[in-house]
Amino acid sequence: MVELPRLRTRNSRIVDLSGNEVVLKGVNIADPEAIYRDRHRVSLLDVADRIFFDLGCKVVRIPVIPEDFYGYGYGFLHQQDTYFHRYLKPLVDYCADIGLYAIIDMHYVDGEPLIDDKPSFGYLDKKDQAFEFWSFIAPKFREYSNVIFDIYNEPVQPRSTDPWEGPYDWATWKNEMAQPIVNLIRRHAPQNLILVGGPNYCLEMAGAATDPVLDPENDPPSIAYVTHTYPGHDPGRRIANVLDPIVDRVPVFVSEWGFEQGAGRVVHGTADEFGKELIDYVDRHNLGWTAWVYDNVWTSRMVNAKWSLLGDVDSEKYPIEYNGRMGGFVKRHL
């Protein structure tokens, strides 16, 4: 096992326990159960091997779907012990063995329809489930120096009955959801670095600088703040608009970004239209990131059905694929 240093924060940077700045770059993968059950040609450990040895990732973000709100027939909360022992623990243990940081992400996506035409949900509608999730996960990984906790993937509004166009209230998110989850995690796992997003799919983050989440166990707090950024976001929600108010004041990590030409509205884009702007910003501010997503089903895809990188081609012979598929682009910037 590679004993990776625990991470914490200092001022606006993520550092190790000796105070050395750490800039983690890597990828997201699909939900481990989805890989185990539905992906062909690879196992969970194959995926870890590929992103660590072939791509050179230093971190992997692992989205754990809590409930079966996509109709896939699986989810963490209804089979916690099975999910933990069959999918999550073997993957995280292997990451620790090879020296790969692992972000465990409670992967709720507010606003997406549930099965059977049930209504979308707000983050407070999932408070009990979030507490159940972290009450199980946090103590299991408290001793893992390579594990980081991402408390809630993409909150939007407090309740499903609230207007989805905003306003997006940081104080409600922080006081009624983020702070209680952080407090719960800290009762079980006092040292792991915690990632905190914000309302409107982690696009309304200015409150992190003026009203930050408190860390009851660590001073300075071992908390960093995240955003997600895609080509389909409104022009006023590009990465500079979202992060400029906080990037020099609190630690920041870009836990999702991606593009795929011809895919859905949110991710439709190219390296020229989106990717280069993103990389220029994170490089200028020395920010870590995890690209979305090293998978061949979920968009924005980095690999094809044979698990070969999309866009990893000669730019002159295949300019459309080179510019419109993100696998090769991510590899070049890791």
Describe this structure in words.
The chain is of the alpha/beta class and 334 residues long. The protein has a single domain, classed as Glycosidases (TIM Barrel, Alpha-Beta Barrel). An 8-stranded parallel beta barrel has the order 3-4-5-6-7-8-9-10. A two-stranded antiparallel sheet has the order 1-2. Helix 2 packs parallel to helix 3 and helix 4 runs parallel beside helix 5. The model has no long low-confidence stretch (mean pLDDT 93). Belongs to the glycosyl hydrolase 5 (cellulase A) family. This is Endoglucanase 5A. GO terms for molecular function: cellulase activity. Its EC number is 3.2.1.4.
Our estimate of the beta-strand percent is: 15-25%
Residue ranges: pLDDT <50 for 5 or more in a row? Answer: none
CATH architecture: Alpha-Beta Barrel
Class, according to the CATH hierarchy?
A: Alpha Beta
Structural class: alpha/beta
Provide the spatial order of strands within the biggest beta sheet: 3-4-5-6-7-8-9-10
Helix content: 25-40%
Main sheet characteristics: 8 strands, parallel, barrel
Shape: globular
Mean pLDDT across the residues is 93
Protein name: Endoglucanase 5A
Domain Glycoside hydrolase family: 16-295
InterPro entries: GH, Glyco_hydro_5, Glyco_hydro_5_CS
EC number: 3.2.1.4
Structure at a glance:
The protein contains 11 helices and 10 strands. It is of the alpha/beta class and 334 residues long. The mean pLDDT is 93.
Key traits:
single chain, 334 residues, alpha/beta, TIM Barrel, 8-stranded parallel barrel, two-stranded antiparallel sheet, 11 helices, 10 strands, 34% helix, globular, Glyco_hydro_5_CS, hydrolase
